């Protein structure tokens, strides 16, 4: 109920997914974070060696003071980054992401002791070594690898989708051509049937015409055999009806 009713707990914008992918999950952004973590760790180690007098040289304490403030500024930027993540994702999505919660806890546990020791003892204090817990942020190297792997994965998925679209188009064209071939085969079968029917019709009419010619060549009162014999005996003699007319 609280999640749906509190507006300040919601993300700052509707396009938070694109902003998350472009800015927070990009390989370049995570490379900057890892480089900043390594720089802070180096400064904290140098400051710790100077504060414990294991490393001594001219103007060592002034140098330790400078790198202390630089480390404090970088840790403050890390904290601002955490606040930015919460604003972009929304507090509920941020809490549900255990990795982001761990990352934010590391930043807070690194920044708080340094701020406290700076307020209490000034820039030179061995208690600043607690801030070395920021080293745990090195896990973001995995994010860099995942970013490049994700990019390759997305490219491969796009290629697979393109291949699937091409295959679907080819299958559609093949189906269309198969349908056209079937229709043409049916038309050929119909045309062959019509030709066979016409040939049968012509053959039937030819048989009837031969019968009619046989009937015309037979005299009255003659049987079929007599008429046929007479026609064979005298093929040039005209029928009786024609002789009568002559």
Question: Notable features of this structure?
Answer:
single chain; 246 residues; mainly alpha; 9 helices; disordered C terminus
Give the secondary structure arrangement, pairings included.
Elements: H1 2-5, H2 16-24, H3 27-51, H4 60-89, H5 91-96, H6 98-121, H7 140-216, H8 224-233, H9 240-245
In short:
The protein is mostly helical and 246 residues long. The protein has nine helices and no strands. It is rod-shaped.
Please state roughly what percent of the residues sit in beta strands, choosing from under 5%, 5-15%, 15-25%, 25-35%, 35-45% or over 45%. Answer: under 5%
Q: How does the major sheet shape up?
A: none
Percent of residues in helical segments?
over 70%
Structural class: mainly alpha
Walk me through this protein's architecture:
The chain has a domain of 158 residues. The C terminus is likely disordered. The chain has 246 residues and is mainly alpha-helical.
């Amino acid at each position: 109920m609280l999640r749906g009713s509190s507006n300040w707990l919601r993300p700052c914008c509707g396009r938070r997914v694109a902003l998350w992918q472009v800015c927070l999950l990009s390989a370049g952004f995570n490379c900057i974070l890892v480089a900043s973590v390594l720089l802070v760790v180096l400064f904290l180690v140098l400051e710790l060696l100077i504060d414990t007098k294991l490393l001594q040289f001219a103007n060592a304490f002034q140098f330790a003071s400078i790198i202390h403030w630089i480390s404090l500024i970088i840790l403050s930027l890390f904290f601002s980054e955490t606040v930015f993540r919460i604003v972009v994702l929304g507090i509920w999505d941020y809490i549900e992401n255990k990795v982001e919660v761990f990352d934010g806890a590391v930043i807070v546990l690194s920044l708080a002791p340094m701020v406290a020791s700076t307020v209490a003892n000034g820039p030179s204090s061995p208690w600043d070594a607690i801030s070395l817990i920021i080293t745990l942020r090195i896990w973001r190297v995995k994010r860099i690898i995942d970013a490049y792997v994700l990019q390759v994965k997305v490219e491969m998925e796009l290629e697979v989708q393109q291949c699937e679209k091409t295959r679907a188009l080819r299958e559609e064209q093949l189906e269309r051509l198969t349908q056209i071939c079937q229709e043409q085969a049916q038309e050929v079968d119909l045309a062959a049937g019509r030709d066979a029917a016409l040939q049968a019709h012509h053959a039937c009419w030819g048989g009837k015409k031969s019968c009619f010619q046989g009937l015309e060549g037979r005299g009255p009162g003659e049987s079929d055999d007599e008429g046929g014999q007479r026609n064979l005996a005298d093929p040039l003699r005209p029928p009786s009806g024609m002789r009568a007319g002559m």
